[in-house]
Structure formats: structure tokens, C-alpha cells
Write a structure and sequence with these properties.
Structural class: mainly alpha
Largest sheet: none
Radius of gyration: 20 Å
Oligomer: single chain
Helix content: 55-70%
Number of helices: 8
Length: about 200
Amino acid sequence: MTRHYQDGQTRRLQIAEAALRTLVEDGVDGFTTRAVAARVGITDGTVFRHFANKVEIVLAAMDMLEAEIDASLQSSIGPTEDIAFFFRHRAQFVGSTASVGRLIFSEGLIRLAGPQGRERIVGWRQRSLGFLHARLRQLHDDGMLAAGLDEASAALLVQGVLLTFAMSAALADADADLDERVSAAWLTLTTVLFTPAYSTAP
């Protein structure tokens, strides 16, 4: 029988992908190296030829998650477009019942990933908030935010709506209409966030 071997980099990537899927499908409490190995089709021992410990595996999975998180931080022609893209991308990311995005809100992931993982998650959140605040500040300065609404309050509104998408996904609500729900939520947000002249923002 012919044995097929993967080079080290390819195998590490496979293990990281399997770890991420295990976290999504089995949850933090169900995350084991045995489950990860089974997804790849290798033994526990083979996993630890490529990673020193369980935390390293989780951190590798988090690298993949981070790339998708940062994809929502897009700079375009203006702050309104940036926020629209951020919201739509992030709502889709956290709102699917099969999405890895729900892990962003998981305190269990922080526990599992250890101090280095905690730093990364804090970094993700700070980058996202910084991105959002900067654009909302610009809109406020340009007189585009609704009367009486400052950037901090506006950011809380956006985050709150995103959290409802994550919660719906965690409850395994059907996501067949996710695109419609995201569009409807953004339309509602524009009427709350922006002055009437800009409430039909993209």
C-alpha cells in the first residue's frame, strides 16, 4: 500500500483548519486533539510532531480566524462605505450557524488559548473598535450622525446589532434568509445612525 506524506507546512495548515472546524462544530468544551486528528485522518501523535501543545494548535487556528476578521476592515472612498462594508461583512461572518465568526464573542476561546491567545483576541477587538470609532468620528465631525448621537454611542449600536446576529447563530436559527436580515438590519441602522439626508447610506 502506498503511503502519502504531507510536508510539514501543509500538515500544519491541515491541522489548523481542522482545529478551527472542531471549535465551530464541537464548541470549546468539545475541543480535543483527538477530534482534530480525526478530522485530518492522522493520529494524536502525528499532531504533536507539528505542534508542541494544544495551545499552539489553537493559536494556529486563531491565525486563520484573524485573517477573516481583518478582511472586514476595508478602507474605501469614505467612512459611510467603510462602515457599511464592515457591518455587512461582520454580520455575515458571525451570523451564519456554521460560521467561525461566533468565536470572536467566545470567552471560552480566551480560556482555551491562554495568555497569548487572550492578547490576540484583545487585539482583534481593539482593531475593530478603532476602525469603527475612527469612521464614526469622521461622520460626527462632518455632521452626518443623527442629532445627539456621538461616536461612542453609535459604535455601541453597531456592536449590539452584530451581537444579535452572533446570538441567533449560536441558537442555530435558520440562516437561509441571512442576506435579507443583514440588509434589513443595516437599513434600520442607517435610519438611527445618520441624519435624514444620509439615512439611505449604502
